[in-house]
Amino acid sequence: MKRLLFGAACAFFLALPVAPGLAADAPPREPYGIDLEGFPYPYPVNLLPLVNDGEQLRMAYMDVAPQQPNGRTVVLLHGRNFPSSYWAPVITMLTAAGYRVVVPDQIGFGKSSKPSGELHFDTLARNTMALLDHLGIDRADIVAHSMGGMLGVRIARAYPDRVTRLVLTAPIGLEDYRLYVPPTPTEQIMETEDRLTAEGYRKQLETNYALKLPPDQVAPFIDARFNIKASAGYPRWLRAFVSSGQMIYREPVAHEIPLLALPTLFIMGADDHNAPGRANAPEALRPKMGQNAELAVTLAAKMQNARAEIVANTGHLVFLEAPDQYRELVLEFLGK
């Protein structure tokens, strides 16, 4: 009888939930490939063969047709820390309004190849034009986010006859980060990034991006970053990821933005103070970095045909945090 009572007591206590601080180690993450094999995208993904610096690569993209075409195309340019799948609600918004929507993963990101060489905005711009040529698209509107904003500026400057309108959604690169941050060796950055944990990354996103999204909307970003660590190709992914950070630092576009002549709309989260490299800047300079809404207003005033809209109570992911306001601003601007 004592053995029966003891066994029942053990079963009872084993069935109790474990206190958070005493939880066993989390199970290992189901691995993805470094081209996000196993990570779902909202629409079919195609692959365009490309050659960059003599290396055979493949550029992934979604090409989504509207049910009632208006004859126009929008290209969506993703940020550094996000797979292009996060554009899903914007794709829905634009196709419902009649736009064909082309959504590439730039080389080095998402489901596209990870090159062995360095990344450069000029190369990414050429790749994007090669994709439009492949699809038979002469002109398009560009809607860009974060790092994609820097690329959008470079594309609009290099190929002004190919871009009709430009929407810069919480873009980075509105200032030259070299004025604040000393150069950092690539190997040092790789070591720092490799030590980052999933929880540390979550906190980094919440802090740097002033996130106001529920955890279930943040989880895919963390999965896309950390479920690849078990892949044999992870070192190659890591080097490409760090190269993208060095590209942002070494190839500023802030001086090019006032030269843009095409219609341009900045959509800024009022609480977005993202500034790549701030942690490596001297402490006295850090508060001066990332005044993004103010920078956008100042730059727009210098441009021929631009305006800046500031969305209250939103951070870096303004199109996910304030979808209704974002839809109204974008469709009104593109419809002119």
Structure summarized in a few sentences:
The chain is α/β, with parallel strands linked by helices and 336 residues long. Helices cover 38% and strands 15% of the residues. An 8-stranded mixed β-sheet has the order 1-2-4-3-5-6-7-8, with helices on both faces.
Rg on CA atoms, Å: 22 Å
Gap between N and C termini? 83 Å
Mind describing the biggest β-sheet? Answer: 8 strands, mixed
Q: How are the strands ordered across the major sheet?
A: 1-2-4-3-5-6-7-8
Helix fraction, binned, reads 25-40%
> Which term fits the overall shape?
globular
Average pLDDT confidence is 92
H/E topology pattern: HEEEHEHEHEHHHHEHEHH
Helical element count?
A: 11
Number of strand segments = 8
Written overview of the protein:
This protein has 336 residues and is an alpha/beta fold. It has 11 helices and 8 strands. The protein has helices at residues 2-15, 88-96, 121-134, 147-158, 186-195, 198-208, 215-226, 234-250, 292-302, 318-321, 323-334; strands spanning 46-52, 55-64, 73-77, 100-104, 140-145, 163-169, 264-269, 306-311. Strands 1-2-4-3-5-6-7-8 form an 8-stranded mixed β-sheet, with helices on both faces. Helix 2 (88-96) links the parallel strand 3 and strand 4. Helix 3 (121-134) packs across helix 4 and helix 5 packs across helix 8 (234-250).
